[in-house]
Amino acid sequence: MADGAVETRVTLALERLDRHMPLFLGTVPAPSGVRVEALEVAVGMTPNRRHGVDRHGRLYNDRAFDCAEFSLASYIMAKARGEPFTATPVFPRRLFSQNHIFVNAKSGIERPSDLVGKKVAVWSFQTTVCVLAKGDLKADYGVPWERVHWLRMHNEELPWTAPPGLRIDAIPAGKDASDMLVAGEIDAMIYPLPPPKVLARTDRVRRLFADAKAESISHFARHGFCPIMHLLAFPAEVVERHPWLPRVMFDMYEESKRQAYAYYDDPGFSVLTLARSEFEAQRDRMAPDMHPSGVKANRRNLEQFIGFCHEQTLIARPIPVESLFHPSVVDT
Q1: Phi-psi sector, 250: left (phi>0), alpha (psi -120 to 50), beta
Q2: Which domains does the chain have, with CATH numbers?
Q3: Among residues 36, 95, 84, which one has the least CA distance to residue 59?
Q4: What's the whole-model pTM score?
Q5: Is-contact 232 252, C-beta < 8 A?
Q6: pLDDT by residue (tens digit) across 48-92?
Q7: Given 3-state DSSP classes, what are the helix, strand and coil percentages for the chain, each rounded to the nearest 5?
């Protein structure tokens, strides 16, 4: 499988999530002649990661890794533009948008429809959870994202021009969106990694949905999936050299996930004392595997999200689900 007698080294950039720990620990066997080096790289500027930050930018701009956990929205935009990337259908991060919409307690926002006309901060317009939230708000709650005043915290990963009439402004230089939310200078925030100051200020900031857990479970009941945030992407030139790599990484990721699920057989594994009970409750209320891999199991999820990207003008037209992935893994 590896090219010749020399060992093939593959760099794999991931966040430090439980289903990735077997890869970091080296307990997932690689094929003979292949050495997969798992690198702990954060997205954004999250500190305390062994191998740095800005994972998405380093993959997209610098081709710094052979494969990496990458934003689904930015990846779809890149593929729609014909850029040289491919992927395997494993999905390292999934989130329900209902758990990631925060409002100032004095903003007058009591229900999703109250977001119309309000100032809402997002990491960027194309950040995956923000695309998902805009799509969910319109499709499930009747809230047109076009009638919200968006404030962008960061530049877009991929260049994009907003359509006429859509109001998107940058957070003023020197300002912090979290402080602005706490102070009431903005009304709401959609954020993939909620800052501690937002989570801590329950007297001034709360989630849009009072019972976000119940609302997320309701979303799963309606749609049948926990929405995808990231996939595992490769620069095309890497896979041209190693065409076996997408299938190898698919299989290794599945084994890593299998080992991670087994961690929870020990009721004392997690710092969450009742983690095993929650594991069982999730299994019984939703599904035994909330992180399914493969094209077949994720088609509806991906088709919906591609539709959100098109409807939000991030791509000119919908693209086929199969076009996202290397030919060797579209049968999964």
Answers
A1: alpha
A2: 8-94+228-329 (3.40.190.10), 97-223 (3.40.190.10)
A3: 84
A4: 0.94
A5: no
A6: 778 878 888 899 999 999 999 999 999 999 999 999 999 999 999
A7: 40, 15, 45
